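Escalation from tier 1.

The customer reports that the assembly of two entities below gives different structure tokens on two consecutive runs. Tier 1 could not reproduce it. I'm attaching the input and our single run for tier 2 to review.
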Amino acid sequence: MKIVRRYFLKSAGLSLFGTGLVPSFLRRTAFALEQSPWSTRKKILVAIFQRGAADGLNMVVPFGEKEYYSLRPTISIPAPKACAGEGECAIDLDGFFGLHPSLRSLKPLFDAQRLAVIHAAGSPDNTRSHFDAQDYMETATPGMKSTADGWLNRFLQANPEAEAAPFRAIALTPRLPRSLMGPAPALAIDDLGGFRLRTNPQSRASNVLRSAFETMYVSAADRLISRTAHETFEAMDALGRIAPEDYRPANGAEYPKGPLGRSLQQIAQLIKANVGLEVAFAEVGGWDHHVNEGGVQGQLANSLQQFADALAALDRDLGDRMADVVVLTMTEFGRTARENGNRGTDHGHANAMLVLGGPVKGGKVYGRWPGLKPDDLYEGRDLALTTDFRDVFAEILVRHLGARQTAAIFPGFKLSAARFQGFLS
Amino acid sequence: MGLEAFLDEQLHPERTNDGDMEARLIDLPTLTMTTEELVESYPPVKRQIRREERSLTEKAGSTTAMSEGWTARTNLPDGAQPSGEGTGQGPQEILTELAREEVLRAVYSKRQLLEVMVQFWMNHFNIFAPKGADKWLMTSFERDVIRPHALGKFEDLLVATAESPAMLFYLDNWMSSATAFESIRRPAAPARGAKWPLPRGRQIIRRWTFFGGDSQARPANFLIPSAQRPNRGLNENYSRELMELHTLGVDGGYTQRDVIEVARCLTGWTINRPRQGGGFIFRPARHDYGPKIVLGHRIPPGRGLEDGLEVLHILATHPATAHFIARKLCQRFVADDPPQTLVDRAAQTFTRSGGDIRVVLKTILTSPEFYSEAAYRAKTKSPLELVASTMRALGAETDAGPCLLQLIGRMGQPMFQYQAPAGFPDRASTWINSGSLLARMNFATLVAANRVPGTRVNWEHVAPGVSSRPEAVIASLDRQLLHGGLSEQTRRALLNQAAMGPPLEAAAGQPLLGRRTRLLPAGEPSAAAGQVSTLAALLIASPEFQRR
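Tier 1 run:
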């Protein structure tokens, strides 16, 4: 048994861990006696936010569209047939769209029908402010700033568990993202291994100190602090058993060095540790390429390489467990169809989202393509929107996580299964 | 000193002698260097040069204007996370010293309000320092742009930021110029008298005023095809953030059209000799001379630098700006969601005083709302505030070294490293989550046990002459740290600890702050740690001490 289940013991009337005085042999015995409450495996969503507005037109390239090349004289990705050499052009997906060559590690997943693209998706709101657009996407209420909680938190609220796991929802980020803010418990931990009190764990003194902290916080009048403290101590106990620093990825998976690789590796670890994870969140910045974005090579290419390799490593590491997992990528808006005077792109509108996982009907680019002719462009400059991001969110929540009460999750938005793209069956 | 006298003194920091404070900065040589000297003394590390040269040779990425670390990389490569730990040689050292200055001033300066306002404006005009050249530019930004204007006129501050190389670089305006598209679309006027190359500098402006009468006119030389002039074109980045974040606020009533028009007005605002760390320069050759309309104001054609200055004046004196800045100040000093009546009054003061920050602060700091029950401990301390208040309350000695900076980062406020231009949101939810709360507990434990290298609390002096009775120690600590605001729950936890616990020294571990951090030599464990430091650790981490 790898995991501590403090709340399980609590519910069984064995509230021993609050004092932290239980000898380790007794802990092992206690776990060995009981079955995991999650012996039935959960369905899991891994949401990844590309902060800064990734350039979807160079990520999933519409090489079949002549205008794409006239709009982007220096940063476009050559069509597969125009290839000067290996890795110098788009990787053909369906004769019209191609992956940026830096995404090559995703191609086998597309071929295995585990990866789907939804193009020309995004927010119907026309804001080009990063902050507003991220806010709208994370609250899933475009145009409404007063929304208090995030869409993932509303999912958790609307679909409570009888036995709430401390790790039901976690963000591998230093600060809790807007998507997970709200009344339902959610953790923000950017380094699982470092998530403990810096005290000598062997000493009785440290146990006493820890329980003094706990006493002080749990009854605090400051509700934000008392709630957060409760989640913090539960998580610390659970992590104490997983020993995250000893983790070895499976199947020869190699995560790229860098924040996203690190986050996804830790998510894989939590999934395999059966701690009741249902919603995981990771983020990666560095997509706001106003200047020298690059084409086949360059800044965007480097970011995409990290991005693709991290996703591919997660898929490989999880192996069979990917049958339960859907990974969704999002970014706040697209970028201008036309490159700007600094060989970069400015803030635009619709964009491409990726969906990866065992349950995904992949190998296909979903969504109606609006085209890039002058009249097709949104406000004369950006890729137009044909899929509302909330329809993508909703399809995953309903068909993958089995969400109920979807009206409460998407306030002010009339959901209709008829608008689902069908990337999940 | 009475409250009024104190306020008056704080609002006029120049009247306070802060010599002891300044003496603490002597060992930080970068703080007084010019940008040129910093570039000279802290050249980019070699590894970085190679990597960036590689990216420069890429066909779409190469430009002649940039090299050797002065690239326009928007972000660090993954994994190159800047930490608070100085490398000793590279430009990272500059940022470490600047961060140390901010912490030292927060802890030791007598000019507290000035320091609070410097931090406020640094966050309001946030710059992600690790972005390329900004590593060398932040020192001057803090010293020459923010600090002199922190209590001055908002418009002066705004213009200073707009002209600062740090902001010009961070939000890309230094590369923005009249677009090739625009140049081609507009008919060219005969360029009588126009010579190429143009003389440089501000004095050039008058030369072009003769175009003033003709809305379509622009010098012929601006029609040089973009192929010969790489990097020509409009960049909207600064223009948008200028309105959204620095002045009007996102609901300030501007449109996408305004974003473009303001960007056109600001073309030519760039950096002189960027590779050597030069200052602001207006380059007439990059300016867009066409007519523009900004927020309903006609900007006449044919002018140069005045376009940008007029835009900044329009923005600085706009009612939406008065309201936006007033609200942010009230949010800083009163509550996460400050009372609307106070915001309105502060905004009125802002407008009436011509954007005089000192006067607006006086309105807020003398308001009944500021002293109301509802505002008492309404704000959650930022990590920097927690550190400063801890050090001040305990009379600690600190050099604000790398270890303390790392702790501030772990608590969620890595200094100058908030990536987006919005700055840290000034709300409790920014600072309190499971990771950062744990980091606060660890900070309290490590400081109390004197395990933070470079920081030392003399526990003999913290509660002198108090008997060893826990009640007496707690009462004394309560007075020093909380001014008697200890809650019943916390008192119980402390008494319980005193009854059960061996001293903290036995429990405290090492400041392991991240997987790559090596252990630094810690201060000697205090012989007097005992009960006082143990109970202080709890108090520093207590819910009430997280508030101000």
